[in-house]
Amino acid sequence: MTDNVNLDEYDDEQVKLMQEMCIVVNEKDEKISADTKKNCHLMENIKKGLLHRAFSVFLFDSENKLLLQQRASEKITFPDCWTNTCCSHPLNTPLELEEAAQIGVRRAAQRKLEHELGIKPEKVPLDDLVFLTRVHYLAPSDGLWGEHEIDYILFIRGNFTLNDLAVNKNEVSAVEFLSPEELRQKFNNPGNLKFTPWFKLICENFLFKWWQKLDDLESSKDILTIHKLGF
């Protein structure tokens, strides 16, 4: 796979993260190898079929408002875009490769919630991260970068406030809690706002239905299906 792209123009911290090893999977979400985050996000490789495992966390407060983040300008893919609470990848490590009950993905989510938003692991216990389903999508960021992922959707609800956050400004430039009505308004009147493609796809297909059933997430679970969206 291509690995000859010069990263000198990008933020140093974000370039370091590009060396992390993602889990490369097939369309059945079976691990077939591992590759760098950089390689997994180059459109040249994506067009050849390179597919990796990811997760998207949707965190709700006690009033059922969803925490959104705006990705920092320093991000290499989808900078400045608004998206769900936390989006990232389980890594090719023993703890995050473990597949039973999606525990590896949930460990990765706990790790990244602390890295991006400063949410301590004890505030997001692994057992409280509820796996709903998987989404397979492909989306370009620009001519060079993009995403091609099987994305695990994780919900968590609790007594969260903005005071619980210690935002990593290299990752996140803004945060806010929104009701369903407020999010719809944000979508319908975007102005200069940009949204990540996976967040838009999940909203258009699933989110608002799931949001109505936060007291009964079991009824929304579809743990066997991998939904292909946006193809």
Automatic annotation (TrEMBL):
Pfam families: NUDIX (PF00293). Belongs to the IPP isomerase type 1 family. This is isopentenyl-diphosphate Delta-isomerase. The lineage of its organism: Eukaryota, Fungi, Fungi incertae sedis, Mucoromycota, Glomeromycotina. It catalyses: isopentenyl diphosphate = dimethylallyl diphosphate. The keyword Transferase does not apply. GO terms for cellular component: cytoplasm. Its EC number is 5.3.3.2.
